[in-house]
């Protein structure tokens, strides 16, 4: 999925950090989190970036999924509306509205349905949820067919700057630390290729630190990644991401953020979400990367 939540990855690419590590990166958009992890399971990819719950589900089914790094450290989703301008202070205020998200198990659908349940609302009766292809959530809102889109950058600031839409809720603020996106692979691959795993995580760590140390560089990279968008929209999108601490500032998976993801998955019935943290997450590569990159 091509979105600005992955700015750490794009900076690592543009700054040549993968090449410095001896990695030739072939990056492709899978169309969704499930498809990305399916490519790893099927052997057509060595790594996947996406909802790390999929590695957990793999492990619960007797598979070999493992999470090596964190790329997005908060829920990167915002409620965007044309006909609602006053920010929501509580998801209980969502009652009666029509929302647009990606289909489950994509994370924007999960954060919406979980926040509704936490507010005592029934996602099937108290609101209407329409699902569309990832990245197109805002279209029905701008067309007057829905009240609120659960969207991510750069679509959020495109709608704000060009269509007069309003950002009325931030799941990044509401949830706090949250392993939104992880680098996933198979334990068998890591065991056979530990040096590749280390190089991959180190390149991402270099990108993560660069984003926060040099935000203007991150904006310049984002403008190259999204050349068809107005530069001021891209700059605003990156600034909103950084201000909300959405891109990971370091690749080690936060246990607090992981527990928040697992709690959500369990509440939604996506997984038992009970594999111990140190069995599903291998932070050794991220810790080594942070040690080697710090101060460069």
Please, could you describe this protein's structure?
- By secondary structure, the chain is α/β, with parallel strands linked by helices.
- The protein has two domains: 182 residues, D-Maltodextrin-Binding Protein, domain 2; 98 residues, 3-Layer(aba) Sandwich (D-Maltodextrin-Binding Protein, domain 2), CATH 3.40.190.10.
- It has 15 helices and eight strands.
- The chain has a five-stranded mixed beta sheet with strand order 5-4-6-3-7, sandwiched between helices.
- Strand 4, helix 5 and strand 5 form a beta-alpha-beta unit.
- The two termini are 30 Å apart.
- The mean pLDDT is 94.
Quick description:
This protein has 296 residues and is of the alpha/beta class.
What characteristics describe this protein?
296 residues, alpha/beta, D-Maltodextrin-Binding Protein, domain 2, 2 domains, 5-stranded mixed beta sheet, 8 strands, globular, ABC transporter substrate-binding protein, SsuA/THI5, NMT1/THI5
User: For the terminal residues, how far apart are their CA atoms?
Assistant: 30 Å
CATH superfamily annotation of the largest domain? Periplasmic binding protein-like II
Biggest β-sheet, characterized?
Answer: 5 strands, mixed
Form type: globular
Order of helices and strands: HHHEHEEEHEHEHEHEHHHHHHH
Low-confidence stretches: none
Oligomer: single chain
CATH topology of the largest domain: D-Maltodextrin-Binding Protein, domain 2
Helices and strands in order:
Blueprint: H1 7-14, H2 17-20, H3 33-42, E1 48-50, H4 53-60, E2 65-74, E3 78-81, E4 98-101, H5 107-118, E5 128-131, H6 138-142, E6 148-151, H7 155-163, E7 166-170, H8 171-175, E8 177-186, H9 187-192, H10 194-213, H11 215-225, H12 231-243, H13 255-268, H14 277-280, H15 284-293
Parallel strand pairs: 4-5, 4-6
Antiparallel strand pairs: 1-8, 2-8, 3-6, 3-7
Helix pairs in contact: 1-10, 1-11, 5-13, 7-12, 10-11, 10-15, 11-12
Pfam families: NMT1
Organism: Pseudonocardia aurantiaca
Domain SsuA/THI5-like: 7-218
